[in-house]
Specification:
There is one protein chain. The protein has about 180 residues and is an alpha+beta fold. It is about 60% helix and about 20% strand. It is built from four helices and four strands; from the N terminus they run H-H-E-E-H-E-E-H. Strands 2-1-4-3 form a four-stranded antiparallel sheet. Helix 1 packs antiparallel against helix 2. The radius of gyration is 26 Å and the shape is rod-shaped. The protein starts with 7 loop residues before the first helix and ends with a helix. The mean pLDDT is about 80.
């Protein structure tokens, strides 16, 4: 071990770097935790908004059993600007498919029950009852992509890590510079 680490300056340098590393590591952990909670909240908002749009589309056509128009509406919804919406399936009370867009009704995945797991998996599967005048007439299941959320979390974590490493490097350089003067 070099002699510089046995001097008071070396010990202060090591202590400063360790302290800075601990502070930045705690900052990194808190930031990533806040980001994950924020993304889960954002996902819940997206689910609520998407659900409202889908239910508003179902209501007028389900009463008249105009599933062809509903199919066209859902095809446009999926292929349009909403690239986060992956599929929509409307089921009747007997779980028979009335409308399926983006996925086969035979291959419906199990609805997600954990937001963090769904974010990590890349898609959140939602199943909800379809109600008309307070009566359940079936169910709707749709999938929301979480890939943008995952990408954003990864970029933010990389940025926080980069800032942390730069902070440690700057601390080391400053403490070494002050120790040699």
């Amino acid at each position: 071990m070099p002699k510089v680490f046995h001097t008071i300056t070396g010990k202060l340098l090591i202590s400063g770097i360790v302290l800075q590393s601990l502070l930045l590591a705690s900052y990194f952990l808190v930031t990533s935790s806040i980001l994950r909670e924020s993304m889960a909240s954002n996902l819940a908002t997206s689910i609520r908004t998407t659900s409202q749009i889908i239910h508003l589309g179902i209501a007028p056509y389900a009463v008249e059993q105009r599933y062809d128009i509903l199919q066209d509406f859902f095809n446009e919804l999926i292929s349009g600007a909403n690239e986060d919406l992956r599929y929509i399936v409307v089921l009747d009370q007997n779980n028979h498919s009335l409308v399926a867009t983006g996925i086969s009704a035979n291959k419906l995945p199990i609805p997600s029950d954990n937001e963090q797991a769904a974010i990590a998996a890349g898609i959140y599967h939602v199943r909800q009852p379809v109600l008309l005048s307070g009566n359940q007439i079936g169910q709707v299941q749709f999938g929301l992509s979480t890939l943008k959320v995952v990408d954003l979390i990864e970029r933010m974590i990389r940025l926080a890590l980069l800032v942390s490493l730069c902070g440690i490097l700057v601390t080391a350089v400053l403490l070494a510079g002050f120790g040699h003067k």
